[in-house]
Design brief:
The protein has one domain: Rossmann fold. The protein is 38% helix and 19% strand. It has 6 helices and 8 strands; from the N terminus they run E-E-H-E-E-E-H-E-H-H-E-H-E-H. Helix 2 packs parallel to helix 4. It starts with 5 loop residues before the first strand and ends with a helix.
């Protein structure tokens, strides 16, 4: 993958008439974790309501913030992202088994899309975050690779601490956008228009 990640700005201006179409990957940035995940969940619901096939995972954070789950958008499974290490523990609370299971389910869902003889009208992959785990080649990295290889549109978010790693990883395939519903809907409309134009 290349090295440039573009910032589409708040208006998400995409030149469909020219050589530059919508990016395969839209990466949300510039807001706190709860706001980002809320928009990803909202987008998943709106895509599904419009008849799109939605696969991937989003974070669900308990009210007290003590537990975080990765909710699978295809099968509804809840995978623990954090684990209780006990009182007084100073270690990382990440649950590697839960994260690995979530990634495996997304890969399986992408494989199912590819195995379908008749593809749905549209499919979108939503991946909760590209963070430190993904920057180190773990976490949801394989799910990102599988979605890119399948040429599926990807909606995600990027931790501000790993923007250099994200640029190296995603390159020309990605663009940043603000955490705003209009940015997501504008990108998705452009993806559908490009798909319709290519199949015409």
């Amino acid at each position: 993958m290349g090295h440039a990640v573009h910032d589409l700005g708040p208006g998400l201006a995409i030149d469909l008439a020219g050589d530059v179409g919508p990016p395969q990957i839209l990466a949300l940035t510039g807001a706190d974790r709860e706001a980002v995940q809320a928009l990803l969940r909202r987008a998943a619901g709106e895509f599904a309501a419009a008849g799109c096939r939605v696969i991937g995972v989003v974070e669900e954070i308990e009210a007290d913030g003590a537990q975080v789950m990765l909710r699978d958008l295809a099968n509804g499974a809840a995978h623990p992202l954090t684990q209780d290490l006990g009182p007084g523990s100073a270690g990382c609370s990440l649950d590697p088994a839960g994260l690995a299971a979530a990634c495996g389910d997304v890969e399986a869902a992408i494989a199912a899309v590819l195995a379908d003889g008749a593809a749905p009208r549209a499919t979108v992959v939503i991946l909760s975050k590209f963070g430190r785990q993904e920057a180190e080649g773990r976490g949801l990295t394989h799910a990102f690779h599988a979605a890119v290889a399948a040429d599926l549109p990807i909606l995600t978010s990027v931790s501000p601490t790993v923007t250099d790693a994200w640029a190296d990883f995603a390159g020309e395939l990605a663009a940043y956008a603000p955490v705003a519903p209009d940015a997501v809907s504008g990108w998705w409309r452009a993806m559908l228009e490009r798909s319709a134009a290519s199949s015409a």
